[in-house]
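Practice set, problem 2.
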Amino acid sequence: MKKGAEFAAAAMQAKWNGIKYNQLDCQGFVEEVLKDIGITKPDGSFYNWKGSNSMYRNFYQWRGTKEECINKFGCVPLGAFVYMWRKTGAELVGYYDDLGNFTHVGIYCGDNIVRDSTRSTKTGRDGVGNTTLDRFSHVSLFTGFDYFDNKKYNSSETELQKLLSEMNLKLKEWGNKINEIAGSARTT
C-alpha cells in the first residue's frame, strides 16, 4: 500500500508547475497525481470523481473537519485530501446529506503547504501551485493510502501526548547527567 507521504511528494513535483486551471482543475489535479503514482480503483480503472463534493463523500477511510483530524491523529497527515467548504446554499450535484458544499480540493504536502489547482483572484494564480493549509476546513483520508507508518502514533492524541511526555523526561534526565558531569569537571 502506498504512503500518504509518497502522494504528497508526487504532488510537489515540478512537472505540475505552469499547468493552467482550464487544462487541469482541482479535482483533475488530484486524480492525475493518483494516476502518476499508479493508484487505481479495485477494478483497475482510474479514479474519476464528479467534483470535490463526490471526492469528500467517496473512497475515504476517515473524514471530518481539520480540527477533528488534528484532535484524532495529532496532525493533518501528509497526502490528505483537504477541502474548502461552505454550509450555505444548495449542495451541488444532488447530495442531500446535510454535509454542505465542498467547493475545492487540494493535497496536503506538509509544513502548512497545500498543492492544488485554482483560478483565484485572491492569489493571482491560474493553475497548479501552492497555498496554505489555513485556507481549508475539512480533511479526508483516502482509502488507497497508509497515512501512518507507525501505528503507535495512529491511536489518539492522548498516546501522542504520552510519548511526548516520555521524551521530555528522557531529555531532562540527559540534561541532569550533563550538568552532573559539568559540575564534577569544574571541581577537579
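Problem 2, part (b): a different protein.
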Amino acid sequence: MIRVLYRWLLILHPRAFRREFAGEMLWIFDEAAATDGVAVLFYDGLISLARQWLVRSGSWKIVAALGGGVLQLSAAGLGIRMLRESAIVSNGLADPAASLELASLVRLATWLVAGLLVMMVSMVVWVRSFTHARTACRNQALFRYSCR
C-alpha cells in the first residue's frame, strides 16, 4: 500500500523527470523500505514534486513576482503609517486620519519607486544568470558532456 502511494507521488512529477528518475527512485524506495523507514523518502518526494513543477515549469517567476508585490505593498503600508504617526506627533494632531504633507508623500513615493527598481534589477540579473546556466548546460549536452 505504501509503495502504491509513493508511485502516485512519482506520477505527479513532470513526464521528463519521471522518464529519467522514476525507476531509480522506486528502487531506492524498495531498498529503504526493507531496511530503514520510508517517511524521509515521502518528504523528499514531496519537496522534489514542488521543486520540479515550480522551477522547471517557470511558475517560480509568478511566485517571485507575487512575493515582490506583497513586499512592496507591505513597505507602502508601513511607510504611510509611519508618515501619519510622524504628522500627528509633529503637528500635535489627535486625528489619525490627519492629512499628510505633499513633501512627505513625494518622499514616500520616491523610496517606493527606488525599492521597486532595485527589486526589478535584481530579478533581471538573477533570471539572466539562471537562463545562462541552463543554456550552457544544453550546449554541453549537445557535445555529450554530463551537466547536472
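Answer key, part (b): The chain has a mean pLDDT of 76. Residues 41 and 47 are 10 Å apart (CA to CA).
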